[in-house]
Amino acid sequence: MSRTAVMEERRANLSLRGLHKRYGSLHVLDGIHLDVGHQEIITVLGPSGCGKTTLLRIVNGLIPYDEGEVVFRSERVAAPRPEMAMVFQHFGLFPWKRLYQNIGYGLRIQGRPPEEIDRLVRRYIGLVGLDGFENHYPSELSGGMQQRAGLARALATQAAVLLLDEPFGAVDALTRELLQEELLRIIDVEPKSMIFITHSIDEALLVGDRVVVMSPRPGRIRFELETGFGRGREIEAIRASDRFQAMRHYLWEALRHPDSDPGPVPDGVSLRMEVKP
Amino acid sequence: MTTETKPLAEAKEQKAAPMLASLREPRVYVRAVSLFGVLGAWEALGWTGIIKPSTFSYPSVIASAFLSLLFSGEMMKAAYQSSQILGAGLAIAIPLGIALGMFMGRSRTFEYAVDTFVYALYATPVVALAFPIAMVLGVDFAGKTTIVVFFAIMPVIINVYHGVRNVDPMLLEVTRSFCSSEWQRWRDLIFPSIVPYLVAGLGMASGRALVGMVVAEFLMSISGLGALSQDYIGNLEMDKGLAPVVFLMIVGILLTKLVDFFESRFASWRARNER
Ligand SMILES: Nc1ncnc2c1ncn2[C@@H]1O[C@H](COP(=O)(O)OP(=O)(O)OP(=O)(O)O)[C@@H](O)[C@H]1O
Ligand SMILES: [Mg+2]
Fold first, then answer.
1. Is the pTM higher than 0.80?
2. How far A81 CA lies from chain B's nearest CA (Å)?
3. CATH classification of A10-83+160-273, choosing from 3.30.420.40, 3.60.10.10, 3.40.50.300, 3.50.30.80?
4. Cβ-based burial of A195 (10 A; exposed 0-12, middle 13-18, buried ≥19)
5. Using one digit for the tens of pLDDT, what is the confidence trace for B208-244?
6. C-alpha distance from B13 to closest chain A C-alpha (Å)
7. CA-based nearest residue to B219, from B106, B122, B119, B129
8. Which of A12, A270, B117, B201 could pair covalently with B159 via S-S, beta carbons 3.0-4.6 A apart?
9. Predicted-complex ipTM score
10. Which residues of chain B from 191 to 230 reach within 8 Å of chain A, CB to CB?
């Protein structure tokens, strides 16, 4: 793909422009600028409490903000819209609905025909590895299984933009890798834009086109890295690459020293520093 | 709810002889011993003449009075009269209480408009309202039904209101995120969340409705089980006076069981959790 084609593809279809959010005297988000290109995957790393969930809720149109704006396909986002689907950090399953109904929830809200709902629900139950649990209530599932159900519910709506709040935080390491692979395969077939929050440096690099690193109190974007792994990724090949190792080391050092400049970037990695006004 | 885990052997035994094995559970035998102990002591006091049939009566005498009222048809006639007030009262109090509780829980404006009255009425002993109600609505069906409504409606309103208020804010956000309409939000989230509150409210409401019914029958025009009891007690026939009380007790227990049954039907997901 030529450089211009890449630029064209990444033409922002979701823009956060100078977002500020305060809870009383707490300045949670301080001037967040972020452009999410068409079918681009942004992964967000940052310490607990730096405002990642708040950021996603604002993008989803769930809570108001104090300054700036969120623009999706040239429209200002003021309320939730069906083109975006959220995977909640707290799963957000309905305790009185069986797994099947929980995963079909978004589709049912959208009034899709029952055959279509059935087809999509079965497909995504399979993709997240929950076959055979259709009739279980959430309380009968493990935390990791509930989290996968939340992921399947969002995927099933086939929204153009996915907002994922630590979607693999409660699954074991092996399942996590399988789900990362699964997610990469899904987006190879059904490309989407994503804002993907994670606490895992490896995951941020494996899944993201761009890794955004945030700093806390007030929440700001410190810098962004382009991973440059493209589509059709092979997790094992990426892991083995020098580029991955170099970026991993760089991110690790940057997160360990939140107050100091992360220093020179590894060869071939492009870095964008946030310009502080 | 407590769940006791039983050793495997004991559980097997229980399958083989459920009746016998259940006698070994404290839940069963402690209750049985306590019940028969108290009734037996009361009976003994009657036989020794410490309690006289004309002042307080005792179990065997009440039981035979109960049967004689049952077979003479008096009990059923009175129960039929009572059930009309009770039924009409509950039929008004339950839907009205649910609607008021829901609107109070979901609309701030409505809540502020009515909550002063609701809490004032909640704090008022309803018995004291019997006379004003009688002045306005008369001492017959309308007046008596209204008393039952006032007794029964409060726990329904308050519980439904709290149920709506305690809907999980995170799930509320989920419904918003998926662009749910208000009606869909009620169907998927609010109704299911208020079921346990509503059931508790209905349990209390049915108990209070029985009290309201008897109060109405004592204080207003003579009818039903309340009047039956009062008439005999006035004649110092304590055994026949207490028989309708026993009848009401049984009805109260049955109503509670009915509410429990509905709860287990509607909240199967919770029943499974606790198993
Ligand atoms: N509704 C609220 N009212 C007041 N303060 C809030 C509210 N929601 C979040 N905050 C505060 O905003 C800050 C950011 O919270 P947020 O949930 O966005 O953090 P996070 O980056 O998602 O953290 P984590 O990684 O632990 O999930 C926290 O200090 C939190 O206390
Ligand atoms: Mg969070």
1. no
2. 6
3. 3.40.50.300
4. buried
5. 898 888 888 888 777 788 888 888 888 778 888 888 8
6. 29
7. B129
8. B201
9. 0.85
10. 192
